Amino acid sequence: MDILPQIAALRARLKSETAVVFVPTMGNLHAGHLALMRQARAHGNCVVASIFVNRLQFAPHEDFNTYPRTFEADCDKLRSVGVDALFAPDEKELYPEPQAFTVEPPALGNLLEGEFRPGFFRGVATVVLKLFNIVQPQTAVFGKKDYQQLMIVRHMVRQLALPITIIAGDTARAEDGLALSSRNGYLSPAERDEATRLYRTLGELGREIRSGCTDFAALEADAMKKLVNNQWKPDYVAVRKQADLQLPSANDHSLVVLAAAWLGKTRLIDNLEVAK
Hints:
This protein is of the alpha/beta class. It folds into two domains: 2-169, 3-Layer(aba) Sandwich (Rossmann fold); 182-271, Pantoate--beta-alanine Ligase, Chain: A,domain 2 (2-Layer Sandwich), CATH 3.30.1300.10. 36% of the residues lie in helices and 21% in strands. It is built from ten helices and nine strands. The protein has helices at 7-14, 31-41, 71-80, 91-94, 113-116, 120-135, 147-159, 189-194, 197-210, 216-228, and strands at residues 2-4, 20-25, 46-51, 85-87, 139-143, 165-169, 232-241, 254-263, 266-275. The strands form two sheets. A six-stranded parallel sheet has the order 1-4-3-2-5-6, with helices on both faces. A three-stranded antiparallel sheet has the order 7-8-9. Helix 6 packs across helix 7 and helix 9 packs antiparallel against helix 10. The chain is globular, with a radius of gyration of 19 Å. The termini are far apart.
C-alpha cells in the first residue's frame, strides 16, 4: 500500500488508473470501515482510502482535539484488506490557507444532525468535495450509519454534476447490535452494555410501524421517554421518509428511523430502514 501525504504525489500515483474507488475516513478504523474497503474492491481496480480529521466539521466545544488518532494501526488494517493507496494529508496540505470557499448544503442539512450540530454538514460537504477533486474517483463508498451525510453527499454529487457513483455500505454492528463507531471507545464498560438500547429502541419503533401504527409523533415521543428513563439524553428520535428525510404521511411506505442520543459524555447515532 502506498502512503501518500501530498496531493501531488497522490495525483501522480493515480494518473494511469482508470477505475478508482474512494473511501474517505477520519481514521481510528474499525470493522465497519474495513467492510467498506472490501465493498469498494468490487467496484474498481484501485481502492484509495483517506485519513483526515476534518476540523471544519467540528464545533469549538466538540472533540476535534481528542478524537482518537491511531495512524499506524489504521495502516496495518488497510493493508490487511488490500487497499492500494492511502491519502493521509496534514492540515497544512489540505488547507494551506483558511478555507474561505465552502459548500453550503440545502435545507436538508439543517434537519436532525444539522439542527443539533450547526455547520457540521457544511464542513462535511466542503472536505468531501475537496477530496473528490483531489482523488478524482469514478466511485466512492459511504456508510449508511451516517445516513443523512450519505444523502447530502449524493445530492451534492448530483447537483454539481460530479462524474462519481456513490455506493452505500450497510451499517456494521457488534454481535449485540451496537453500530460500530470510532466514538464507541469513549464508553465506559457499563455504558457499553447500556449502549445497545439505542438500536433496540429503533427496532421496537420499526416493529410498531410495520404492524400498522402511523402515529409517528407518538412513537417518537415514546422512544425518547424510554431513553430518558434509562439515563440517556436524546437529541432526537425521528421517523422520516427514506427519499428526502422529510416528515412522512400515513401512506408512505419506505421510511427510516433515525436517532442521536448522549450516553454519559458520548454521543451515539443510529438508524434503521423500515419498509411498511
